[in-house]
Input
Amino acid sequence: YRFGTETAQLSPHGLWSKNLTEILYLIVDHGYNTIRYPYCNDIFKPGASTVSIEYYRNPWAKGLSPLEVMDVVIKEATDLGLKIILDRHRPDFQAQSALWYTSAVSEEQWISDWQKLAKRYKDNSGVIGADLHNEPHDEACWGCDDISIDWRLAAERCGNAIHEINPNWLIIVEGIHHIGETCWQCGDNYWWGGYLKKGVVDIINKPVNLKIPNRVVYSTHDYPREVFPQTWFDDPTFPDNMPDKWYNYWSWIKKDNIAPILVGEFGTKLEDDWDRVWLKTLVNYMKENRLHWTFWCLNENSSDTGGLITGGAWDGWHDEKDSMLEPIKAPDFRFHD
Output
């Protein structure tokens, strides 16, 4: 996962310190095979421009719009064999949103912009899917049949619209946040976008039903205590309590052979042994259950988790994190011309 195009820069971060090829080779040479590429809908605005790209290092970017920068990044990445999942991370660069639409970005624009991307990258087989909306939370519900807040129904509308343009894309649908009273950490809750609880989020009877079958991938997010001190971290049996927690809140979808699941975000600064134990336990669980994933994140400037790149000038590498992820990397992927 590499962020930036969803922020005020409207382009991947780090291009002020490194050239694009160097960064992509770091990804490939360390055995990572997929980039989850976030964006915000501001990139589609007439006159939108990127900020903070160092043209001395990246002369190709001079004069390009945010979408044209995305074109170059995606082409070079897929030419190296990397796969791309596009991620609508924010409606605008200022903040995430609970729902897929806001007062500034309508549902119609959300869908239309996804269709533009589906058309733009239809001929690039390395672009494999659409993560429709990042971290639905607060009032977002699943299966409540209120068209204004039912995330499941919105995902169906958007997924079908994308498939009118590109029927091959995977449609990645995150969970919600909680069931119950609408407030921060109220009711039965989990991480934003991560709540897919068995028997509550009724994917069996109320799945995301697309006209083209076998294209839906459900997705969860999972984090350690350092991001937020969830109650389950205080369980005296931690980390032995976590496999049951993960099964009940999201992995049952894969383990019970309902549908594929992607662990779309997980990450940590590894600042203490709690974080190391959490990451080791999750990696072992993912390896045991053959789960697909994208790690948060590549960037060194994530305030929540830090990144795989380190050093303050994008010139270091977090060897400990990288080595802890080694057991779940795709084998034999390291290569470039």
User: Anything to note?
Assistant: The mean pLDDT is 94. The helical segments are 20-29, 66-79, 107-120, 151-165, 242-255, 273-288, 319-325. Residues 273-288 form the longest helix (16 residues).
